[in-house]
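user: At home tonight, take the chain set out below, taking as long as you need, and be ready to discuss the fold:
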Amino acid sequence: MAGNKIHKLMAPLVLLLLVMPAAPEAGQFPVADKVVIEKAARQLHLLQKGKIFRTFEIALGMVPVGDKKQEGDFKTPEGSYLLDGRNPNSEFFLSIHVSYPNLVDRREAASEGIDPGGAIMIHGQPNVPTRSEGYYRTQDWTNGCIAVSNSDMIDIWLMTGENTPIEIKP
């Protein structure tokens, strides 16, 4: 009896899947030649030939104002970097590595005798959330990374390539 109910519920789903258009392939998405983060506006822009073609809402480090100077300051860095690595198996839903610290960041930290930190990423939501969905959507909650929704992270993943320049503005 239960099996019949399942089959009756599944039939409309199977029909829907048969008539739905196929999902777009990665090559069908525009690819950014630059990413710009506007920290104050909490926005990530994908650009192609100097024109913004997509904008996403972001969350930042828990201390969002100011440039990252050292490990553990909970700030998101400011400056020019590259998206230089991808991790489909991170503790967050997908992650793309930002090349922080660059040479300037390392020199400044060395002159002050501090560790500049690292592991700055653009990533989705935690795979094992410890807070409500509303918290992640409305608060700056990262240790210094740039966080987006999981669906936005898929788009960013598909629309950026290896070594895409990223500029992080105050």
Notes: Strands lie at 34-38, 43-48, 51-57, 79-87, 95-98, 121-123, 146-147, 164-169.
